[in-house]
Amino acid sequence: MNHRENHSIKIIVLGGIGEIGKNMYLVEVDRDIFVIDAGLMFPEEEMLGIDIVIPDLTYLTDNKERVKAIFLTHGHEDHIGALSYVLRQLDVPVYGTKLTLALANAKLREQDFRGDSNFIEVESDSIINMDSVQVSFFRTNHSIPDSVGVCVHTSEGAIVYTGDFKFDQAATKLYKPEIGKMASIGEKGVLCLLSDSTEAERPGYTTSEAIVERELSHAFYNAPGRIIAACFASDINRIQHIFDAARDYKRKVAVVGKSLERIYHIALDLGYLEVADDLIIPISEIPNYEDREIVVLMTGSQGEPIEALQKAAKQSAKFINIQPDDTVLIAASPLRGSELLISKTVDMLFRAGANVISGKRTIHVSSHGSQEELKLMINLMNPKFFIPVHGEYRMLKAHRKLALQCGLPDDQILIPDRGDVVEYKDGIFQISGKVPSGNVLIDGIGVGDVGNIVLRDRKLLSQDGILIVVVTLTRQDKKIAAGPEIISRGFVYVRESEKLMEDSTKLVRDIVERNTSKEVFEWSSLKQDIRDDLNKFLFEKTKRRPMILPIIMEI
User: Fold this and answer.
1) Of 271, 290, 285, 176, whose CA–CA distance to 225 is shortest?
2) Last residue of a domain, one of 381, 416, 447
């Protein structure tokens, strides 16, 4: 497809290898760099106070004049959530399908992006001609419409990135994958396939959405009161199923959650949701209907439903709280590390009197292909080289094993680390270098200003608390004018630890007097002595190590 001879082909993964989320892949042909996806990752448990995590963009900003375009595969946040941070550094066109660009544009506004964006809409049949390559697309089956894979056509063959996909034989028109086009791409020659590994450990096929529809219908039929349906805001397929079941059983739907409302309105306006005009009601009108006529569709912050359900179970939600005879449908798979949280939430919902349907019945299925579907993609594309992406390391290894079963030689399968430069040279792909990579932590409006040292301090504060020691000295003779005063936060309850506070205060006074009596008095030495001696004393008494913050003032 590409008639120009290319002399250099490189693939660089900035995110999406060895992790779930933060997908960002670079294809570098000759001197041109093409970015595929720009995703975020939600913080892990130890990232205290962090809002989101994005890839390290250093390599892109250092080579901004060579970056020619950004291609987006679909509208989930792990593929578009970092776009505003990329566009603050780069002025390049962004290619994506209609729904993907609409969701990306909404995300830019949400993240207070004030620059200009050059969005160019494509369809699965579009072909983009660049100086060094041609780029084409193919439609995939995922939980959100307008999902595509991306092909970068080089003179050596196509570099194909699948995006997120599965093969559902009962997929409706909006979600049907272009299997014939995938086979055609494979016949023309795929140099390297980068394929989704999320469910590479799961045998067989991912359960069809048709089964979900049937189970949801059964749950609606048996619900005596209100139905509280919780799902991810961006799972448009699941949202459509819930609307369809509500229509069939003559129920009205109230939509709760900012992100859900935003995505619902975008998908509805663009024709990606089919909803009768009289099906949706404002939350304020719920009291006007009987309980058996109501469905509440809800998500929480960041489009994630569990937090919202917890508030509803505790009777502290703003709009809707759980009451006896409610049926709660949790139509969402747990995020990594949140399994315990979901278990506790289900327990709280039962305590509040609800009947919870989660896991035991198929009201939610994965939006990623299982082992047999991953094999099908490999066989359709028939690549010379294979790189499993989008998954933790064990998933990548499982996907590698599937590629071996499909007949790919071991030396033609690569699992690079983040930041590795995979270069095509002398007929083989090999790792030839490294670029800056890692996590950039976003906290409030700060981008990357929170690093390991700040996280370490936050962890210390969360474990043993903080002691603030305040001492005021006279300027002339360096005598104690006021204090020492010790303020405890998160360490001990002062009223029940008066003896410990008195002994600590006496210790600090002795340290101050010892230091100020020296001929040469140093502020830094005094502060360090307070930290060291007080830390040793408190550990002997309590076996805890609070953060100690000395404040010395002069009058």
Assistant:
1) 290
2) 447
Are 9 and 416 a contacting pair, CB within 8 Å?
A: no
Domain of 534, in residue numbers: 465-554
**Cα–Cα distance, 106 to 101 (Å, whole number):** 9
231 and 216 in a single domain? The answer is: yes
Cα–Cα dist 249/245, whole Å: 6
Q: What would the pLDDT profile of 139-171 be if each residue is shown by its tens digit? A: 999 999 999 999 999 999 999 999 999 999 988
Please return the burial class of 121, using the count of CB atoms within 10 Å of its CB with bins 0-12, 13-18 and 19+: middle
Number of domains in the chain: 3
* DSSP assignment letter at 166: B
Asked whether residue 53 falls in the same domain as residue 191, the answer is yes
Separation between Cα atoms, residue 415 and residue 396, nearest integer Å: 7
**Is 452 within the bounds of a domain?**
no
pLDDT, tens digit, 9 for 90 and up, residues 78-120: 899 899 889 988 999 999 999 999 999 988 888 888 878 899 9
Q: Which one of 39-53, 159-173, 521-535 scores highest in mean pLDDT?
A: 159-173
Residues near 176 by Cβ (< 8 Å), separated by ≥ 6? 139, 141
- 198 and 215 inside one domain: no
List all residues 6 or more positions away from 156 whose beta carbon is below 8 Å from its beta carbon. 6, 9, 191, 424
The model's pTM is 0.82
* pLDDT tops 80 at residue 3: no
Which helix or strand (DSSP H or E) is residue 477 part of? none
Residue 454 lies in a domain: no
